[in-house]
Design goal:
With about 750 residues, the protein is of the alpha+beta class. Among the domains are: about 220 residues, Beta-galactosidase, Chain A, domain 5 (Distorted Sandwich), CATH 2.70.98.50; about 90 residues, Immunoglobulin-like, CATH 2.60.40. Helices cover about 30% and strands about 20% of the residues. The chain is built from 20 helices and 30 strands. The strands form eight sheets. It has a nine-stranded antiparallel beta sheet with strand order 1-8-9-10-11-16-15-14-13, with helices on both faces. It is globular and about 80 Å long.
């Protein structure tokens, strides 16, 4: 284990590292000492729609509640101002009228409490006669627990019912507490309570309706089960009455009362067994292994195909007496994109589908936004948006930058890359990205040099929300996103046999000036007028290095760009900066440095593994020491591990491309690579000893030799050596494998 890992291992997870495969997942988990005194160190559970956080101490436990679609989506009145348009923004910037600019585009977000994600309150549980001495999380079964001597209280968010379930021996009393933060939204009135009381005076059930300034929501808590083995069943739903669908909690409570809790747990366990079987990695660094497993669990707990996608905090909205940081919104200048990035490679399609179907369902809203704000056809995605896809404003140079939508749409392109699903390409990926490309092409204006430029350009979040944030068009961020969008559309159109469309998209890409680079070092610049001159949390000028995997986008020197970022220091970095930079270094094959930054990233996590943005270690890694919880740093850490293990640019597959020199034994199973390949590989004692590659769609495989020149015998199809590559033309539904013992 690296010395960095030793430092953080004690604050993370207890892990027994197996030799191979997915069995590791069942052995990973959280184990924390009691008490837990703050929500952001709590034990998280979720089923993609509902979320719960278990914490507390002594005999009092707190269950913080959340539901993904609880929102106040009232629109600020100033959004109807005639100047609240793309043209109005351009005039204000041109006239240097930043006071009016901030009034229109920043202040509604900064000064109004809405629109916002809503907290759902908490249930206070008294476990009579017990003193809690520890908390934990079993990843394999998605079960949170609190121990009191030999007794254990367990919490689950049922995978096949929309209910949170608490079970324990003894006596459980409960009381629901409405969220205090709703008062900031305006007059709401008192909660409306319906209570069922047992003959002995104990509360058996509460249905509490919470009036908000927008739409009300309700929380139902009921106690079922036999004497001495109580079960609390909690549901949260919009409105005042539960929806008449099979997943609602009322039937769950009656089913548990009639058939017992085990009847609900069998399908729950099966669902999580399927989740863990998708893919796995085995690392020799116990702290990183534990964090990887936890982050994968967060995908299963916070995202599913029939629920809203993850906003900044997933299904764990802050329970701190106020509204969530940054309103718990959808930030599309980095956060949402990075939160879903690792799911492509890990094969977590259930989580990814929640994101993609959400975007498709909001295309009418994105088209309306393109017409009414930008004055063009096609679709534009707000850089900061609500659950329904409406803009929220806030630092308008980024929240209303039209190129953010290209990065969002890249999720469709990336999913096609790893699946090579032709139906998905024709019916979903190309049509969605085409809408984005159409609007972007219409927004571009031809410059004196004959090339295409945006009238306003920026680079998140360089110069914050000052006038200096408007950079000379096109910024490297904007140029990279424009060229990526048009190039991806050209590639997809060609795959569909639409040659004329493909040629037009590639021509549009060529008309966008390539990003500028330093004439001496070759490092990518922020814009033609500005280099990366100071420490900054957002490496928006380096998107061509990571996450994009299109060689034709990269016009600067990778190592020079990374060296410059490192040279500026980490003083202004937040947690995600470390995990993102680790992924960049791994993409460049710099595994030892990637390990260093990835290990340093763990200093920005809470003891439950949540990414808290600020440095929690006291080591001076960053000047940011605050602790707002957001998810993207966690998922970027998972992606950085993938970058160490597997690389494919669509033409060549490479195994273990950025393994740190101290990692002799490492393996992965069923990770996906560009080209539609599903790959498993094992490295023992620094030597690759087993490889398996499967394809559903077929194609020509070009595998960079991972065996150090040794001859190996392949099974399943003909594989031939061609210089430094192993090459095979594989039919659909083919698997090839080889073993090469040391």
């Amino acid at each position: 284990m690296s010395r960095h890992a030793v430092v953080v291992c004690a604050i993370l997870l207890v892990l027994l590292l197996p030799a191979h495969g997915a069995a590791q997942d069942a052995r990973s988990g959280l184990r924390l000492q009691a008490p837990i005194t703050t929500w952001d160190e709590a034990i998280p559970v979720g089923n993609g729609l509902l979320g719960g956080l278990l914490w507390g101490g002594d005999s009092t436990l707190i269950l913080s509640l959340d539901r993904g679609d609880l929102w106040d989506e009232r629109t600020p009145a100033i959004f109807s101002d005639p100047e609240w348009t793309w043209q109005g923004m351009q005039r204000l910037v041109r006239d240097d009228n930043m006071a009016r600019f901030h009034e229109l585009f920043d202040e509604p977000y900064d000064k109004l409490p809405y629109p916002t994600k809503l907290p759902a309150g908490r249930v206070q549980i008294t476990w009579s006669g017990h003193v809690v001495d520890g908390f934990g999380l079993d990843l394999a079964t998605a079960t949170a627990w609190a121990s009191a001597g030999r007794d254990t209280l367990r919490l689950r968010a049922l995978a096949t019912r929309d209910a949170l379930v608490v079970s324990a021996p003894g006596t459980l009393r409960f009381a629901y507490q409405a969220p205090d933060g709703l008062a900031a939204l305006g007059p709401t009135g008192p909660p409306r309570l319906r209570r069922i009381v047992e003959p002995g005076g104990e509360t058996a059930a509460e249905l509490v309706t919470i009036p908000t300034a927008a739409d009300p929501f309700s929380v139902h808590v009921t106690r079922v089960g036999r004497a001495g083995r109580p079960v609390l069943v909690i549901s949260i739903f919009p409105g005042t009455e539960p929806p008449p669908v099979p997943r609602q909690q009322f039937s769950t409570a009656s089913e548990i009362g009639l058939h017992g809790l085990e009847s609900m747990l069998k399908p729950h366990r099966k669902a999580w067994d399927r989740f863990w079987s998708t893919s796995s990695v085995t690392l020799p660094d116990s702290a990183l292994q534990a964090h990887y497993d936890l982050v994968k669990y967060l995908y299963g707990a916070a995202a599913r195909r029939d629920a809203p996608p993850m906003p900044l905090q997933g299904v764990w909205t802050a329970d701190n007496g106020g509204l969530p940081p940054w309103k718990g919104d959808y930030h599309n200048d980095l956060n949402t994109q990075m939160s879903y990035l690792a799911a492509h490679v890990a094969g977590l399609d259930d989580a990814m589908e929640g994101w993609l179907t959400f975007l498709e369902a909001r295309l009418p809203e994105f088209r309306r936004f393109a017409r009414e704000f930008y004055g063009v056809e096609g679709a534009v995605i707000p850089g900061v948006m609500t659950l329904s896809g409406k803009p929220m404003g806030g630092w308008g140079m980024y929240s209303l930058s039209p190129t953010n939508g290209a990065w969002v749409a890249w999720s469709f392109y990336r999913q096609w890359q790893v699946t090579r699903d032709s139906t998905f390409l024709a019916e979903r990926a190309y049509p969605f990205m085409q809408e984005i490309g159409t609007a972007l092409r219409a927004l571009l204006e031809r410059g004196e040099d004959g090339l295409l430029y945006l009238p306003l350009s920026s680079s998140p979040e360089i110069h914050d929300n000052s006038r200096a944030a408007f950079l000379r068009p096109n910024s490297t961020y904007d140029a990279t996103l424009l060229r990526m969008c048009f190039a991806a559309l050209g590639e997809m159109a060609a795959a569909l046999g639409r040659d004329a469309e493909s040629a037009a998209w590639y021509a549009a890409m060529q008309e966008v000036a390539t990003p500028s680079r330093d004439p001496e070092s070759g490092a990518l610049r922020v814009s033609a007028d500005e280099g990366f001159s100071a420490s900054h949390r957002h490496f928006s000028h380096a998107l061509a290095i990571h996450p994009f995997e299109m060689p034709l986008l990269l016009t600067g020197d990778i190592d020079a760009t990374l060296d410059e970022i490192a040279a500026r220091g980490t003083a202004q970095w937040t947690g995600y900066s470390f995990s993102w930079f680790a992924a960049m270094l791994a993409r460049a094959g710099r595994g030892d440095e990637a390990l260093r930054y990835l290990t340093d990233y763990l200093a920005f996590t809470s003891r439950n593994g949540f990414h808290l943005n600020g440095d929690q270690s006291g080591r001076g890694l960053s000047s940011f020491t605050y602790r707002p919880f957001t998810l993207e740093g966690n998922f970027l850490a998972m992606d950085a591990v993938h970058e160490m293990l597997l690389r494919s640019d669509g033409e060549v597959v490479e195994l273990f491309p950025a393994i740190p020199t101290i990692w002799d034994d490492v393996a992965f199973a069923r990770l996906r690579a560009n080209g539609g390949w599903t790959i498993s590989a094992t490295r023992e004692g620094g030597v690759v000893t087993a490889v398996e590659i499967a394809t559903r769609v077929g194609g020509t495989l070009r595998l960079r030799d991972p065996f150090g020149g040794r001859d190996v015998r392949w099974r399943g199809a003909t594989v031939r050596r061609a210089g430094e590559y192993w090459v095979a033309a594989l039919q659909p539904n083919t698997t090839i494998r080889t073993t090469s013992p040391r």
